[in-house]
Amino acid sequence: MRLLHEILDHNRTFVENQEYKPYQTTKFPDKKLVILSCMDTRLTELLPKAMNVRNGDTKIIKNAGAVVSHPFGSIMRSLIVAVYELGAEEVCVVGHHGCGMAGIQPEETLRKMVERGISETTLDTLERAGVNLTEWLQGFHSVEESVKASAEMIRKHPLLPANLPVHGLVIDPSTGKLDLVTEGYGSQEEPKVTT
């Protein structure tokens, strides 16, 4: 049986047996947090457990490397929607050690594209149209520096509130240990306590 058919067969049973009930929640994050993390398979269950978040607690956005590569790309749009439409009040960018984006070789990825049937003509056409594929596919050398850069791009975004806490963390995909790269509370005034 093909994978898609296995998924659909499982889903029919899942719905018929009402196995979805423990996961029912609203679309608004209870902890008012949005997390940008890597799509690495090791983080699927580990990251929420390591951060003490359950279904309904946070919005989680995943991409290759937890990288914000463009200030007006789909990752920033998702973060903006999470803040303004879904009530998120803090952001965590969470990279991880041993990330596949660390040291990725764009030339090798382009070679694999050609092997899988993408024509050299298509690649040349995109390059002539101004798409620098090598730059677009570029990874990073330091996960800490990448997390810091993404957090900074979010923190300084002209369409996000200046007082939005944006934190940067790196997780160990073996143990779940979190290391703080940058804390988003530092530049804000502490709330004044009145009596």
Report on this model:
The protein has 195 residues and is an alpha/beta fold. It has a domain at 32-104 and 139-182: Carbonic anhydrase (Beta-carbonic Anhydrase, Chain A, 3-Layer(aba) Sandwich). The chain has helices spanning 3-16, 43-50, 74-84, 106-115, 120-128, 133-136, 143-155, and strands at residues 33-38, 58-63, 90-96, 166-171, 178-182. The chain has a 5-stranded mixed beta sheet with strand order 2-1-3-4-5. The chain is globular, with a radius of gyration of 20 Å. 23% of the residues are buried. Residues 188-195 have low confidence and may be disordered.
Task: Describe the protein's topology.
Layout: H1 3-16, E1 33-38, H2 43-50, E2 58-63, H3 74-84, E3 90-96, H4 106-115, H5 120-128, H6 133-136, H7 143-155, E4 166-171, E5 178-182
Parallel strand pairs: 1-2, 1-3, 3-4
Antiparallel strand pairs: 4-5
Summarize the structure.
This protein is an alpha/beta fold and 195 residues long.
